[in-house]
Automatic annotation (TrEMBL):
GO terms for molecular function: DNA binding; N-methyltransferase activity; site-specific DNA-methyltransferase (cytosine-N4-specific) activity. It is an enzyme of class 2 (transferase). It holds the Pfam family N6_N4_Mtase. It comes from the Bacteria. Keywords: DNA-binding, Methyltransferase, Restriction system, S-adenosyl-L-methionine, Transferase. The keyword Mitochondrion does not apply. Residues 104-279 form the DNA methylase N-4/N-6 domain. GO terms for biological process: DNA restriction-modification system; methylation. Gene3D superfamilies: Vaccinia Virus protein VP39. This is site-specific DNA-methyltransferase (cytosine-N(4)-specific). Belongs to the N(4)/N(6)-methyltransferase family. N(4) subfamily. Signal peptide: none annotated. It catalyses: a 2'-deoxycytidine in DNA + S-adenosyl-L-methionine = an N(4)-methyl-2'-deoxycytidine in DNA + S-adenosyl-L-homocysteine + H(+). It comes from Candidatus Roizmanbacteria bacterium CG22_combo_CG10-13_8_21_14_all_35_9.
Length: 280
């Protein structure tokens, strides 16, 4: 921990903001390897038998890898003539984006999954070290799809979503409310997408279906219906096999949580995914 603190302090002294951000990205990447966080776990589980990586060596290795990647990207952008294309990074809530109405030509996104792990927990080391939050409970509530808040007056804007909610209510009320909250919050995101898109503009959404408590969670179908009900039309829907990802491929059918291949309740998760291409 002292060595990590040393690295953090030295990065903080860097005056060039872009360079500092680059170093903090590298620092964030090594936190799990340099802690007793259970390797490849999506939940904050401690592994007391784990031998953490040496921070300084690990940080230098990470930065060198990032430098090589940046060099390759620079070469590619130079070859394609894209170096001077303007870009601006905005870190904000997808439900409230500071962009003018009817000003965006294309939106590409892969939203969070309703039955997936808690994203706030996954990123808690970075959030605490880089001081994005001092209260993890409050931090969790900012994420779409989190189970840490229970909103009322939900608008699902989808008959399919309503039917999923009814099926889940027969199995588990808490899960039904969590899924309903997720679909309602994603509908808010889609309202914001519609506001930003130009006429003829498109949004591409990558999403997979799954199941929870024995109920099929048809994310792709719900999203498509929500977007259509908001006035967007289907330009194309592409179904494809999921490429190799550093994610567990099976889920516990009863709990809905990712699990090991030896679990007798395991079911395949996200064997395919959909690319929803919708046009305003």
């Amino acid at each position: 921990k002292r060595k990590l603190a040393f690295i953090f302090t030295e990065i903080s002294k860097t005056k060039d903001q872009d360079v500092q951000d680059f170093f903090f990205c590298g620092f964030s990447n090594i936190l799990k390897n340099c802690s007793i966080w259970l390797q490849k776990s999506n939940k904050p589980t401690r592994d007391f038998e784990k031998k953490p990586s040496e921070p300084i060596k690990t940080f230098l290795k990470q930065i060198k890898m990032m430098l090589r990647g940046n060099a390759r990207l620079f070469e590619l952008l130079s070859e394609k003539g894209y170096l001077k294309v303007p870009s601006k990074v905005i870190c904000t809530d997808a439900r409230k984006i500071p962009t003018k109405d009817n000003s965006v030509s294309l939106i590409v996104t892969s939203p969070p999954y309703v039955t997936s792990y808690e994203y706030a927990d996954l990123h808690q080391l970075t959030a605490l070290w880089l001081e994005y939050t001092k209260d993890l409970s409050d931090f969790r509530k900012r994420f779409i799809g989190t189970s840490y808040h229970n909103k009322k007056d939900l608008t699902l804007n989808s008959t399919i979503a309503e039917n999923i909610r009814k099926e889940l209510l027969e199995k588990d009320k808490k899960t039904a409310e969590e899924v309903s909250t997720y679909f309602s919050e994603m509908n808010q995101v889609f309202i914001e997408m519609k506001r930003m898109l130009k006429k003829g503009g498109k949004t591409c959404i990558v999403i997979g279906n799954t199941s929870l408590k024995g109920v099929e969670i048809l994310n792709a179908e719900v999203f498509t219906e929500q977007l259509q009900n908001l006035g967007l039309k289907i330009a194309d829907i592409i179904k494809r096999e999921i490429p190799s990802k550093n994610l567990p491929s099976v889920r516990d059918e009863k709990t809905g949580r990712f699990t090991g291949i030896n679990n007798k309740n395991k079911v395949s998760v996200y064997p395919t995914e959909y690319i929803l291409i919708m046009e305003k």
